[in-house]
Amino acid sequence: MMGVRSQRRPENPISLAVADPADRPPWGAALPTLYALEEAHWWTRGMFACTAAILAADGWSGRGAVLDVGCGSGGALSQLAARPRIGLDISPLALMHARQHPDLTLVRASAMALPLAPARFDLVLALDSLDQRQMDSRQALIACAGQLRPGGRLLVRVSAHPWLHSAHDELTGTAARMSARQLQALLRAAGLTVRRLTYANAVLFPLAASRRLLADTLRRPLAHDLQLPSAPLNRLLRRVLEREASWLRRGHNLPWGLSLYALAVSSQEKSGENEVRP
Description:
Layout: E1 15-17, H1 31-36, H2 42-57, E2 66-69, H3 75-78, E3 85-89, H4 92-98, E4 105-108, E5 121-127, H5 137-145, E6 148-159, H6 167-171, H7 180-189, E7 192-200, H8 205-218, E8 223-225, H9 231-249, E9 259-266
Parallel strand pairs: 2-3, 2-5, 3-4, 5-6
Antiparallel strand pairs: 1-8, 6-9, 7-9
Helix pairs in contact: 2-9
């Protein structure tokens, strides 16, 4: 698990009750806050547990070279014991935060044009990066696939369900939520075999979906609050995701959720007969 740092809130947290779309902050305005809270926030820590669980369930040994495409502030990559670990991001702000992890090798580049020698990684991560604004997901996945050694794994996480797109996604830089079929089609187009598709953050899904559907029906945007919750609530929400991670580690999938994971492998096969079905 991630090391626990003091849950000190940033000086200027994003806390918005948006009444007029014209008053919305710039796209991705919440990212500085999310980077600053990375090691304390329930969502970040809980989703790392889900990521580790999916890799463990697939039999990943934890050894070998790892590339994190769209590494953000580097938290997920820093928790892996594998070496070497290379984090890549186009954002100077993200890389500034990632430098807090001195044992990572960091590269500033676009996910759509990776400046690395091909076929050198055993594991490539793309966690909440392929659905970002100005990202060509198809081109980025082809680039990621080219980095895998034979038999290497690609683990992708995206925001799920296009119909759930909201102002919250704009704050966090998410341009396009995806369905399971869309994500699998993109992975197949990149020449990969999809071995697992599962949702995550399932327990909170009904509440989030209801709130967003209600806001859409009333044509009123949701209020947003990306501050760190109180310590008891933060622990509770983190434990919810850790329980989901335990389920995923046993090889079980979740039928719905706010996030969607896909684990794919490089393959020379010309058909997808061994693939999972969305």
